[in-house]
Amino acid sequence: MGNISCEREKEHQAAAQRAKEGMLPDSDLEKICKIFQMLSDPGRLKIVSALMNGEMCVYHLTEVCGGSTSSVSHQLRLLRDNDIVKARRMGKNMEYSIADEHVREIVNMGVAHLHCEVDE
Predict the structure, then answer these.
(1) CA distances from 5 to 12, 44, 53, 91, 110 (A)
(2) Phi, psi of 59 (to 5 degrees)
(3) Residue 61 to residues 7, 53, 83, 88: CA-CA distances in angstroms?
(4) Is 48 exposed, middle or buried (0-12, 13-18, 19+ CB in 10 A)?
(5) Where are the domains of the chain?
(6) Which residue in 26, 27, 42, 79 has its CB near the most CB atoms, within 10 A?
(7) Burial of 84 (0-12, 13-18, 19+ CB in 10 A)
(8) Is the Cβ–Cβ distance between 58 and 19 less than 8 Å?
(9) pLDDT per residue rounded down to tens, the chain (120 residues)
């Protein structure tokens, strides 16, 4: 490792090797980053949060989340294209809901982490 010295060289080398062997493939990393990117926008996260309480149409989501129907529709399209929400036709309207329980878990874990005290 060049001129870098470490008091716990063997232990850290073993940890680095385990990390290297357990590293996710780049394609998986990119997909996971896209999920977090979708959830990193406050407007999209607000929509997801609203849908965690049940299925809704774009009109009611606009009422709950604010903004225009057009902007909420655009955000729903992005969330849908990235498998965060799903839609189904009900008559003339589309009803939106959380794509699966993993989305709910990701958001709930974020909330739990928000209220977690990190040891120094």
Answers:
(1) 11, 46, 53, 68, 37
(2) -65, -45
(3) 56, 11, 18, 15
(4) buried
(5) 29-114
(6) 79
(7) buried
(8) no
(9) 455 678 888 888 888 899 899 999 999 999 999 999 999 999 999 999 999 999 999 999 999 999 999 999 999 999 999 999 999 999 999 999 999 999 999 999 999 999 888 777
For domain 29-114, the question of CATH label 1.10.10.10 is answered with: yes
Residue holding tokens 């969330």? 79
Answer whether 0.90 is exceeded by the pTM: no
Under DSSP, the state recorded for 22 is: H
DSSP-assigned states of every residue in 40-99: TSHHHHHHHHHHTT--EEHHHHHHHH-S-HHHHHHHHHHHHHTTSEEEEEETTEEEEEES
